[in-house]
Write a structure and sequence with these properties.
By secondary structure, the chain is of the alpha+beta class. It folds into two domains: about 1-200, no CATH class; about 265-395, Histidine kinase-like ATPase, C-terminal domain (Heat Shock Protein 90). It has helices at about 1-10, 20-50, 60-70, 75-100, 105-115, 125-150, 160-230, 235-260, 265-280, 300-320, 355-360, 365-375, and strands spanning about 265, 290-295, 300, 330-335, 340-350, 380-385, 390-395. The strands form two sheets. A five-stranded mixed β-sheet has the order 2-4-5-7-6, with helices on one face.
Length: about 400
């Protein structure tokens, strides 16, 4: 079978694009299949049916051989087109000669099934349309010719109809087996390429998340150094705010790097870790009780980062400003997953900001929250009963 393997890989070059490599091999297989079927059909007609005119069909062999030659010269689309047009033209003449008006046309369907697998690139549309329209024209021409009796004198009257149908059946059987093999092989190759591509993307995503996390960690360290070096309390607070915001983004990438799913994170663990990191970074002595009731929800990074930043602003604000006169400070975070909407409610029992002050607040924190809510197509509101309650609802995509 070495000769078959060599022929199968004829025209395949080192470092060739995977899709083109697949196309080259498929064209070789289809051309070989067509020529073998053509030779076998001619031998059967000539020796067993005593049909001398069947030798003329061998004149089409150079056309199919030329498709293999063009294939080897990297003119893949031209090779496909010649293979397609040659098959359609040959089968048209075959239909006129034999007078069979049904069985032979099934071969057109097999051609379309097999060759359509090859057209994967944008530039191949023109070639595909030419081949497809030519085939449809051939089918219509044969159909009209039968109805109008245009080529009745061209029909070989010496052929026996039942034997001709038997020959058609054998040809169809061989074509079906070969094309089925091509389709199955192509499917397996595509599936394997897809699996390999997915694994490669997972590795790349993990590496990207890891590098982003490390870069953000460096920025956080620089901010800490700058914060510790400055004596101005206002500057320290500003640097701390920037630190917390970057820390919340870094935490998202850390979670994605740790998870098997590299494109989304589990929100419950993320929020719990976010609260711990915020408390650690603020270094406050208040004994704040944190309560979380969070449904199991996985969010994409494009949603998780805005959610993390929003919660960071709210939790930080509560810790800094809400509990100066509260005996038992408490922060509760509730996340409920509904059919079309995810709802997050964060409530504190402090005596910090009021709803009125927040509505007229033009600071960076509120502007950031408004921008982030718009980014995830959400809606939010504040209520000021027994502390401050923030409600956020956004689409469950």
């Amino acid at each position: 079978m070495n000769w078959f393997k060599s022929f199968f890989n004829f025209g395949v070059y080192p470092n060739q694009d995977a899709s083109e490599e697949k196309m080259v091999r498929t064209i070789n297989l289809l051309a070989l299949n067509t020529m073998v079927c053509l030779i076998l059909a001619t031998i059967y007609s000539y020796y067993f049916q005593n049909n001398k005119s069947s030798l003329y069909t061998l004149l089409s062999l150079p056309l199919f051989a030329s498709s293999i030659y063009l294939n080897a010269k990297r003119k893949i689309l031209m090779a496909i087109t010649i293979l397609f047009l040659s098959s359609s033209f040959l089968l048209t003449i075959y239909s006129f000669r034999t007078g069979e008006d049904a069985n032979s046309h099934m071969l057109f369907v097999l051609n379309i099934m097999g060759l359509s697998l090859l057209y994967r690139k944008e530039k191949a549309k023109l070639y595909f349309n030419i081949s497809l329209y030519f085939t449809i024209t051939c089918i219509l021409f044969v159909l009209i010719s039968y109805k109008m009796h245009w080529f009745k004198d061209f029909i070989d009257s010496t052929l026996i109809a039942i034997e001709q149908r038997e020959l058609n059946f054998y040809i169809l059987l061989v074509f079906s087996l070969i094309y089925s093999f091509v389709i199955i092989t192509t499917y397996r190759q595509q599936y394997k390429q897809m699996q390999d591509s997915i694994e490669e993307q997972k590795v790349l995503l993990a590496e990207v998340n890891h590098r982003v996390k490390n870069n953000l960690a460096v920025i956080i360290s620089l901010l800490n150094m700058q914060k510790n070096a400055t004596r101005n309390s206002e500057t320290k607070n500003s640097l701390q705010d920037v630190h917390d915001r970057i820390m919340s983004m870094a935490l998202v990438h850390q979670k994605m790097y740790q998870n098997k799913n590299k494109t989304s994170i589990e929100l419950a663990n993320f929020i719990s870790d976010l609260v711990v990191e915020i408390r650690k970074s603020l270094d406050l002595n208040e004994n704040i009780l944190y309560e979380t009731m969070i449904d199991s929800v996985r969010l994409d990074i494009s949603i998780a980062i805005p959610i993390g930043l929003i919660l960071n602003e709210l939790i930080t604000n509560s810790i800094k400003h809400a509990f100066h006169e509260t005996d038992q400070p408490n922060i509760s975070i509730t996340l409920t997953k509904k059919v079309d909407v995810i709802e997050i409610i964060m409530k504190d029992n402090g005596m910090g900001a009021t709803v009125e002050s927040l509505e007229h607040n033009t600071g960076i924190g509120m502007s950031l929250i408004q921008s982030l809510v718009d980014q995830i197509d959400g809606k939010y509101s504040f209520e000021g009963s027994d502390g401050l309650t923030f409600t956020l609802a956004f689409p469950n995509k």
